[in-house]
Amino acid sequence: MRTPDFFKKLSRGPQVVLLKDAAYASAFAGVANGDRVLDAGSGSGWLAIYLATIVGPAGKVYSYEWREDFHLLSKKNGVKAGLDSIIEFKQKSIFDGIDETELDAVFLDLANAENALPHALNALKKKGACVAFLPNVEQVKTFVLKGEELGFVHERTIDVMPREWLVRPQGTRPETKGLMHTLFLSFLRKP
């Protein structure tokens, strides 16, 4: 069993997808055991590792990263997590195409995600989800409008802002600190 603290043991290079965002992304995409999913923009490999814990052991995660240093780091973290048999790490740019077909979901965590949408549409099976991790609302608009232009259906765009609570004998109230908005999640579905 991997508790959330497990991720603190992994090496970290570029910005990572936090568990709060990964959980919502996988849930609304409908990812389940046995699915085949793609993570583009591996970075430190955290999202690929998280997804592998859901789809494995019967499923597969394909993780694309064009930068060699990030590719090697994510691969190292996949081995450390013991999930390298479920995750296939590829040093490749998704903008050059997707090798796999009939994918259940494609997760895009990279700049200019809208430019990967034609490849995602071709690689997804019917009703497959395409989820983007987008830092600002202007990128959300560009991504969603491009997706709809290509034939995707925009299901929702959300941000995830959990609030932790203090539970004490003298009173219970929300914490006065915490990590709130980190990014937007935009969900497209192939008809």
Architecture overview:
There is one protein chain. This protein is of the alpha/beta class and 191 residues long. It has a single domain (4-189), classed as Vaccinia Virus protein VP39 (Rossmann fold), CATH 3.40.50. The protein is built from 5 helices and 9 strands. The strands form 2 sheets. Strands 3-2-1-4-5-9-6 form a 7-stranded mixed sheet, sandwiched between helices. A two-stranded antiparallel sheet has the order 7-8. A hairpin with a 2-residue loop joins strand 7 and strand 8 (171-174).
Short description:
This protein is of the alpha/beta class and 191 residues long. It has one domain (4-189): Vaccinia Virus protein VP39 (Rossmann fold).
Write the layout of secondary structure elements.
Layout lengths: L18 H11 L6 E5 L5 H10 L4 E6 L2 H13 L6 E5 L11 E6 L8 H7 E11 L2 H14 L2 E6 L6 E4 L2 E4 L9 E6 L2
Parallel strand pairs: 1-2, 1-4, 2-3, 4-5
Antiparallel strand pairs: 5-9, 6-9, 7-8
